[in-house]
Amino acid sequence: MQNSRFDDIVFLDDFFRSSDNFLHSHSANRRFLRSAFDIPLRRLGLRCRELAADSENGKGLNVGAMMRALGLTASAAGWARSCIADFAPIVDAGLLPTLAPKTLVIGWGMTPAMLHWLDRAGVRFIDVEVAPQRFATHLALQMRTNDRRIEAVLQACRVDDEVFWDEATAIRAFFGRHGDRHLFDPGLSIGLFCGQCAIDLALVCDGRVARPVEALEAARVLASKVDLLVIKPHPYEPDLRLLEEFAAGVPNAVWTDANIYALLSADNLRFVTGLTSGAMREAKFFLKEGLPLLKPDRDNPRLLPAACSNWIVVGPEVLSLGALSAVCGFDDVPPRIEAHVPLDALDRAFRVRWGLDAANPGLPPARTAFADEGGLLHDGPAAPAWLAFGWSAGDAGGRWTVGGRAQLLVPLPPEAGDTPLRVTIDGHAFEGDGRRKPQVRIRIGDETHPVRGVRGRWTFALPPATSRKVLVVDFDIGTPRSMRECGIGDDERLLGFHLEGLRIEAVEGVPQRSRLRPALLGLAAVGLLSLALVAAEWSHRGAGQTLAQAPQARPAMPIAEKASVDIRSLFKRHDI
């Protein structure tokens, strides 16, 4: 082959994101780049090497000294500031290596400051990340560059948007057969707020790590346009405190842990919002509006080199010999890039598919809590939809909360807004080894009851509220514990409260519309503990079969008797 435009290939990541700044690094991404590009580049006769922080077993990058030279503190805040800092002081101090113009830098998630450093030195770069359209059968990458010839090659490897439109069609068809088409209830309009990891380059705005509460006013305006603003935490961020701070300022905020693509497929979802979540880029393929509340520094043209291209979504063929020959500018490159890289190459490398699997149940059937004139609930699949967030699978006696927060959401009939309600919760806190029990609080609106003792009953009085469309019950769990931690088993779930019954009643002596009282008393008949039963029915029977149609179901009983049923016996009768 003829001479290449480059004689040195350097692989980088955001080396300021390291233990020097008390942050967890993602060095696996840099290693992925080196390994993925290594074979074809070496076949082209090019030398490859990595640059990394000394603290991450790298060579030549003293991040601690760089932070001091930039006048930044060793902290997450200092790291965020480094993302847009002028590197001139550390270049002048010789803390960064001198890269020749014939060097090509391929970096993972490089910051605006890093891109400026390279561009000013006359170095060509390719910035790489996983593409935010993660619902497709195969993962894709997104790349950007400051070189027009490289940009042309990336465009030749571009994944056309029609691929994602077709993939979204397939996912929506999947959820047409698996799960419900609505979240919670067809009569509710929904907005979705997507959370992110607390420390994320995508959250750095003006050199600061943004918090959800900073977008509170804009979010409240959006929330006022729907019945519920549903918060979906990021699956890799276990700490919910930042989202809880945000939720406290949104009157109609509720929570969900449903699959993100089941949510995007829901007919009653009106929009998707958040700070900068990639879900807003995905939303358009499900015909939902994506409304970002933040412009991150990494995507702000004002903070990027003028020569930096837009992101280009590319498939795994970008790793092929033909594509990299074109990137490196060899004279004898054929006019058409021939690539035979496996379509699942990126899936294998990341060992994760952000899309779906055949076992995903989708959204549980949505039903309003309502009964017929006889006071009997015939909509067996109603209950799973009420488990909004933070619940275990059912057991023989009820449901455990898992983690520090759980929520029930019960859609109510229109009449419920005109009537005082009484809500009764039965259950007990996790006892564990008896030395340190979780601190549990049950909250409905402004009323909170602490859970004391092992087993109990907690009653809430709700005044009439004409705007009431749902009943929301929150369970706040301080220091949840696992059975494994307590030495009483191998169960690693962080348990807090065991829910054994839910009763919703119209208050005696208050006039009600004709169907309201039986509707609410009907809830006491089934209770929340039938959730495990219903989940089993839904999984193993046809979606159209109700609880009343199941062969094990008991004959109907009068409302008064039905309201006093020991809910645990339902599980015994149905062998759950």
Any chance you could write out the topology, listing elements then pairs?
Blueprint: E1 8-13, H1 27-43, E2 47-50, H2 63-70, H3 76-82, H4 88-92, E3 103-108, H5 112-120, E4 124-130, E5 141-145, H6 148-156, H7 161-177, E6 190-194, E7 204-205, E8 208-209, H8 216-223, E9 228-232, H9 241-247, E10 253-255, H10 260-264, E11 269-274, H11 279-283, E12 289-292, E13 312-314, H12 321-327, H13 345-350, E14 387-389, E15 399-402, E16 405-411, E17 421-429, E18 439-444, E19 447-450, E20 455-462, E21 470-478, E22 495-506, H14 516-526, H15 530-540, H16 559-563, H17 568-573
Parallel strand pairs: 1-2, 1-3, 3-4, 6-9, 6-11, 9-10, 11-12
Antiparallel strand pairs: 4-5, 5-13, 7-8, 14-16, 15-22, 16-21, 17-20, 17-22, 18-19, 18-21
Features:
alpha/beta, 21% strand, 17 helices, 576 residues, disordered C terminus, elongated
* Coarse shape: elongated
Please report the distance between the alpha carbons of the first and last residues: 69 Å
Into which percentage range does the β-strand content fall?
15-25%
- Main sheet: strands, sense, barrel: 6 strands, mixed
Would you give an account of this structure?
- This protein is of the alpha/beta class and 576 residues long.
- The chain contains 17 helices and 22 strands.
- It has helices spanning 27-43, 63-70, 76-82, 88-92, 112-120, 148-156, 161-177, 216-223, 241-247, 260-264, 279-283, 321-327, 345-350, 516-526, 530-540, 559-563, 568-573; strands spanning 8-13, 47-50, 103-108, 124-130, 141-145, 190-194, 204-205, 208-209, 228-232, 253-255, 269-274, 289-292, 312-314, 387-389, 399-402, 405-411, 421-429, 439-444, 447-450, 455-462, 470-478, 495-506.
- The longest helix is centred in the N-terminal third of the chain and has 17 residues, at 27-43.
